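Notes from hallway chat w/ T.B., transcribed later so I don't forget. T.B. wanted the structure written out for a chain they're using in a teaching module, and asked if we could keep both sequence and structure tokens in one place. Agreed to drop them here.
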Amino acid sequence: MPTVGYAYALAQGVQIDKIQPGQIKSLSNKLIREYILYPYTQVKDLRTNLETSAATEVFRR
């Protein structure tokens, strides 16, 4: 049974049989956020460069 990602790729015109798994870069080892909780509070989203001092709100989501 095809997955949602498979159906999405087909809808985008991706030729599934042309995908080479060895050429796909892993994103699992990249940092997404940086948390600094002492001596001050700051959360920075490294993808968008947004920063906030409302760390409690970030942790609640």
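Follow-up for T.B.: The chain has two helices and three strands. Might be a good example for the class.
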